[in-house]
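Hi support team,

I submitted a single chain yesterday and got back a structure, but I'm not sure I'm reading the token output correctly. Could someone confirm the output below corresponds to the sequence I sent? I've pasted both exactly as they appear in my results page.

Thanks,
R.
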Amino acid sequence: MKRRSFLKIATASFAGVYLSQCSALRTTHQPLTTVIKSADGLLDFHLEAQDETVSLAGRQAKLMAYNGQVPAPRIEARAGDTVQIRFTNWLSQPSNLHYHGLHVSPTGNADNPFLHVAPGEQIDYSFTLPDAHPAGLFWYHPHHHGHVAEQVAAGLAGLFVVRGELDEIPEVKAATEEFLVLQDFELDAEGNILQPHPLWQMWGREGTVLTVNGQLTPKFTLPDQGLVRLRLLNASPSRIYRLQLEDHPFHLIATDGGALEEPVELPELILAPGERADVLVKGDRPPGEYALLSLPYDRGIGSMTAQMKADMDNDPQMAQMSKMMRSLRQLQTQPQQLATVIYGDRTSSIPLPKKLGAIAPLPEAQVQREFVLDHGMDIQNGAAFLINGKGFDPTRTDISTSLNQVEDWTIINAAGMDHPFHLHVHPFQVLSRNDKAPPFLAWKDTVMVNAYERVKIRVKFADYPGKTVYHCHILDHEDKGMMGICNVQSV
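Hi R., thanks for writing in. Yes, this is the structure output for that exact sequence:
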């Protein structure tokens, strides 16, 4: 079928619904997210996933929610705590839970991505955080293959905070703490999640409603002491955020896997889906209001949408679709305000910490591996997104390694789109990008691999044997095949 004919058939209804919903948005606030904390070494609660009508971005939206909230309840625990979550799936499709970034067992009813919780079924998740688990910002979301992007895009995501040494550093402890969950949604005029156009699903769905904690442009107030700790999660299924706070640098103190050795000043911060960051912001500018912006970022689909729009502009029958594409292109090419930071005159000032922690470089690797991320077609299973020429097969083990083995993985993006790479259970250190060492050492579980880029990481498969997965965190790409299975075997 010719491209123009395909676009006419597949996108006409999508365009009309999209345009009608744009004018329906208004601004208000929703209740604060519930916080569930461990006590006496135990975190024990019930979590339910179901279709729910919630307040989102100032309107009623029909989403998928944990315990009726978007974002979901925030969980807080400490190293050494036992976590027990009774999960009930009231959705019309199978689901499960993934504890993104936690270093816990991938087997049994812990962080097991292969569990199948059917509609109406209940499962008891149980695991214990290691005594040496780092403090940091982690999160939980569904991970049932084939439904991940749809369920996360509909709102299923929540923070999992591990408290510890980083929180006790005097300057960090004195800062005002704010959690920011970044999510985007695509809604029709009635507040339903709009099913993505096939091309957007292939590229990775993005919504035109950008929210922070379920709100449109919420306001955060800096205290008189003038230091705020912003704890950021990109919980969108595909969108990459390029963040900037007007006239203020970010002082990065932690990434996915925990604290850095010392603060790193950054003019802006890029967060791929699944990535987290802790930043300190000093209120040392003139009193006023400052916008937290999502700056333009093209993850490799800008030229595609531009070409689609050019084709439509030349076809009068595609006028509505062309208008929709113009709105979507605007989100890709112009800054979008996510939130506002407000403060007045300072009465005192908290300094930045000078030292945060120590990161020991991993020892030399015993094994070298390459992973090529590409687009194509696996004739065995029809997958369109591939790792080393193969789409995901739940019956195939792609890698076998040994407990406590150290490996270097070179991730090669052979495609024209960015692909953030995520490894479950086992944190890693980034060694190089296109053979250049990074400016600082950090623990990560998700790393951006830009189009045609080579990224080398080093990982030690410590503590936990069993099968787990690695995949692209553009969640439509994961669902469409860009995932593999790693089996860590006991020695």
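A quick pointer for reading it: Confidence is low (pLDDT under 50) at residues 1-31. Let us know if anything else looks off.

Best,
Support desk
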